[in-house]
Amino acid sequence: MSRRVQLLGGLVVAGTASLALFLGGVAGAAGAGSLTLSAHSPAHGVGTELTAVVDSAAGAPVANAVVTFSVHVEEFAGAPLLTVGTASTDAAGVAHVTYQPTWAGPTHFAASAALGATTVAEGSLTAAVTQTDPFAGPVNATRTDGLIGRWAVAVLLALVVVMWVVLLALVVRVQQGPARPQES
Amino acid sequence: MTDVIATPAPAEHRVDHELRRAVLRPVLETPKWWWPSILVLGAIVLLGIVAWIYQLAHGLGSAGYNDDAFWGIYESNLVAFIGVSYGGAVVSAILRLTHQSWRAPLTRIAEATALVTLPIGMLFIIPHLGNPGKIWELIWPPYWNLSSPILWDFFAVSTYLMATIVFFYLPLVPDAQVVLTQLDDAAPSTRVRVRQSLYRALVGRFGGTPTERRRLNGSIGLLAIMIIPMAVSVHSVLSFAFASSSRPGYMETIFPVYFVVAALYSGVALVVLSVAAVRKLYHLESYISSRHFVRLGFLMIAFGAAYLYLTFTEYLIDGYSNTAGPAAWVYQIVAGRYWVPFWFYFVAGGLVPILIMAIKPLRTMTGVTVASVLVVLSLWVKRLVIVIPPATEPLVRAATKSSGAVSGLWGTFHFTWVPISITVAATAAIPLLLLIVFRFVPALSVTEMEEVAAESSHQGGRP
What we know:
- The complex is a heterodimer.
- By secondary structure, chain A is of the alpha+beta class.
- Chain A has 2 domains: 2-129, Immunoglobulin-like (Sandwich); 146-184.
- Chain A has one helix spanning 147-175, and strands at 2-4, 12-23, 32-40, 48-55, 66-72, 81-88, 94-99, 105-115, 118-129.
- In chain A, strands 1, 2, 3, 4, 5, 6, 7, 8 and 9 form a 9-stranded antiparallel sheet that branches.
- By secondary structure, chain B is mostly helical.
- Chain B has one domain (2-459): Formate dehydrogenase/DMSO reductase domain (Formate dehydrogenase/DMSO reductase fold).
- Chain B contains 17 helices and no strands.
- In chain B, helix 8 packs across helix 9, helix 12 (290-321) packs across helix 14 (339-358) and helix 12 (290-321) packs parallel to helix 15.
- The two termini of chain B are 30 Å apart.
- Chains A and B meet through strand 6, strand 7 and helix 1 of A and helix 8 and helix 10 of B.
């Protein structure tokens, strides 16, 4: 399921949100819950304020759910979701955190709401970030997109293996006993 | 057993019988103080284990962690203990590579210190994670995360541990052969047979011929070269866990070299303390003199001066940038809520040791030992200053007001009895493990001392 969401402010100019519904134990509500994720400029300071609205299947706000906000990153190997903050929903089912993007361009955000150990709803949002933390770098910078990371992982793992082999070879060399004829 | 020690060595080997007698006695006979020391230190370690079990039952909150202080004493201990290990190995490697003749009585103690402190430091990751089951997910595919500096810490530290074991083991081979020779003449008993099996395993097929000696020394030399960049990389990678974050106070490009120099500084200090303790306990006053302490002291304050300068550089640049995050963090450390531990480090761990080494009457064995105590203690405090302030900064995840807005209040890490007990236990584990190691291994490298003495007598100098 997906829907358009209202994006406010100049920092994030456009985005689409997709909602994934989960059957879960939403307190006071039976059936699926929903999480609507939106992004906008904060009232004070810089950054992107991520807001999640958590509703029960009946459409009632879910209070006291812990919402974990994440951003998709691909700076090194893999493509993990980096947690940028958690917040609890208020009586209106709203939770928000402020995040400072370091890169402009399409950015994938995600949020997950949980009551205790049970995830009640998840949502995601792809938004076009137009302004970033001014100290993070130029707006039109080209990112590595994991290029360096992939090579670094291979080279570093190879180095680790080589060092272990050399260390074991040194022990064997000393323990091997009397010298061979050509050595003496 | 005393008779065994007094057994003359084969005539073809010129040996210093007094040296062998003094060094091998604690290996072949149990000193009177050994068991009481083991019991006391073991009890302290047990207290730490009890505290850890309590933490397992009650959660990380019992160790002072909370939402506004997500890293604390365990991370500091991890850095501090691995750091001192690094110092021991590198000091030994540098002295070996530069063929310092005065190194001979010190290398075994330095290498043993490195050997025992490294695993203790590594263990701190377990209480730090809270749930020990996470260790498996941290290091094993497909759960591992190659993007995580913690995983690379594991690769680096485990490789360095392997190198430290080999670096301790190789110079031990000829000494194990000496001990084995002594045991061969001892009255047979189960204890003697067990020990003989141990030393035979250590010696392997090494026979001590000149060619094998050359091969051994070549391997030690190669390893000494390897272990320096390896140790540098280990502590650099350890700093990545901080430096690769976006948190002011952690995101510092100076951190890799900063961590390495701190490790060397505190590592040399711990070697001094280990040497002082071993010298006193094993009555090695004839072989370890004031000269050794003063030279180690000079080495220590050279690293100390470099560390002071790097501290100045880091704070100057962050403060001068006047950006909200770094400047606020520097203020809190220098003049805010963390000023006491910071200035304690600066005075006790920076200025006083330098003054002790600069003023000649203070430049004694006692003076260097006192300076080393101050360095080890204050560098541990400095690690707390590195770890805790940025972890308590009021950033996105900081304490919020009822409205949901960030409160602006700094978080607080609480020093409860749990992490303090575990820290004290880990500290006690250092002498405990050293006592156990030196119960089986000569505290001084007998063959190396004999070799250095022989070389020195050829050259007409003193060792």
